């Protein structure tokens, strides 16, 4: 019988074949390098590892360059600021209260504006309400002004002069007694001269008012205080009636007199306005205010 033909072995790159023991004990055949196959697809990402410890703070960097200069702010000034409470009203400030205005010499001045009474726009320069402030003061005190924004005050003769030097201003006086009755007096014009003229009262005609006219008799008279007697009397009216006013010989009104709380037995030394309740009644409240016309 014919022996089967020997099959031809496939060529191998290894001899002995890979993994077959070689001629020496413990030696396997060494494979010749073959070409690299195609790269497989990326695997699914693993879970994130734990957060590492916080690093130490680095050194502060150098200061950066400065920015460009901004536009000028819109600040009130002597040129653009309001001159009176009436001007504030025309600019849309409708609430009564303390506001800053600018006098003709460019000085800012904080004043109480009454935006409610008689059309509003009034600048208040005198207020009495509870007797908390002593009005029996000297010339310097009245020149500079005194009192509290929360209560009673006198704005100061220099300030009143500056306010009324801007043009023609009308005057309104408001009074209230201890029964809650309100009366007023209104004058066509009001101006206070400067200190060189002893703060003389320059007053226009009485226009109207339920309180009657108790200021016209003081027209063209100088201001007097306990330490500067400028009245027409042989005595010092300011001392005699314990106030400070445009006394003649002596007065028909004394709104800077003693706060005596209604009826009083002493004569004419209270917060008096003769044409309403006479010389023996001191009012609970008074205000004097001007408005540029």
UniProtKB/TrEMBL annotation:
Name the source organism. Answer: Balaenoptera musculus (Blue whale)
The record, for SMART domains, names:
FBG
Q: Show the segment(s) annotated as Disordered.
A: 25-78
Q: PROSITE patterns, per this entry? A: FIBRINOGEN_C_1, FIBRINOGEN_C_2
**Record domain Fibrinogen C-terminal: where:** 76-293
Protein name as it appears in the record: Ficolin-2 isoform X3
Where is the sequence biased in composition, kind Low complexity? 42-54
Instruction: Choose any GO biological process term that the UniProt entry carries and state it.
Output: complement activation, lectin pathway
Q: Name one GO molecular function term.
A: carbohydrate derivative binding
Keywords, A to Z? Calcium, Collagen, Disulfide bond, Glycoprotein, Immunity, Innate immunity, Lectin, Metal-binding, Repeat, Secreted, Signal
Q: Which residues form a coiled coil?
A: none
Compositional bias ranges of the Basic and acidic residues kind? 56-71
One Gene Ontology cellular component annotation?
collagen trimer
Keyword Metal-binding found? yes
Compartments where located: Secreted
Q: InterPro entries under this entry? A: Fibrinogen-like_C, Fibrinogen_a/b/g_C_1, Fibrinogen_a/b/g_C_dom, Fibrinogen_C-term_domain, Fibrinogen_CS
Q: Identify one Pfam family in the record.
A: Fibrinogen_C
Classify the main location: secreted
Lineage, uppermost ranks: Eukaryota, Metazoa, Chordata, Craniata, Vertebrata
């Amino acid at each position: 019988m014919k022996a089967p033909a020997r099959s031809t072995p496939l060529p191998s790159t290894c001899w002995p074949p890979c993994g077959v023991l070689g001629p020496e004990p413990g030696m396997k055949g060494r494979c010749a390098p073959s070409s690299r196959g195609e790269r497989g697809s990326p695997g699914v990402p693993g879970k994130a590892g734990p957060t590492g410890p916080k690093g130490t703070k680095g050194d502060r960097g150098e200061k950066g360059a400065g920015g460009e200069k901004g536009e000028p702010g819109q600040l009130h000034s002597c040129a653009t600021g309001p001159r009176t409470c009436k001007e504030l009203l025309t600019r849309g400030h409708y609430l009564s209260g303390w506001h800053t205005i600018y006098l003709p010499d460019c000085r800012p001045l904080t004043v109480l504006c009454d935006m409610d009474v008689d059309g509003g726009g009034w600048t208040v320069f005198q207020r009495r309400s509870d007797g908390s402030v002593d009005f029996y003061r000297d010339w310097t005190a009245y020149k500079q002004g005194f009192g509290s924004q929360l209560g009673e005050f006198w704005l100061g003769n220099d300030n009143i002069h500056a306010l009324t030097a801007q043009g023609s201003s009308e005057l309104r006086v408001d009074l209230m007694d201890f029964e809650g009755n309100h009366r007023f007096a209104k004058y066509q014009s009001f101006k206070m001269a400067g200190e060189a003229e002893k703060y003389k009262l320059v007053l226009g005609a009485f226009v109207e008012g339920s309180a009657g006219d108790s200021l016209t008799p003081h027209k063209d008279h100088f201001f007097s205080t306990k330490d500067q007697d400028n009245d027409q009397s042989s005595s010092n009216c300011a001392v005699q009636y314990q106030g400070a006013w445009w006394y003649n010989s002596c007065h028909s009104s004394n709104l800077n007199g003693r706060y005596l709380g209604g009826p009083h037995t002493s004569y004419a030394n209270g917060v008096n306005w003769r044409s309403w309740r006479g010389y023996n009644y001191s009012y609970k409240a008074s205000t004097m205010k001007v408005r540029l016309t």
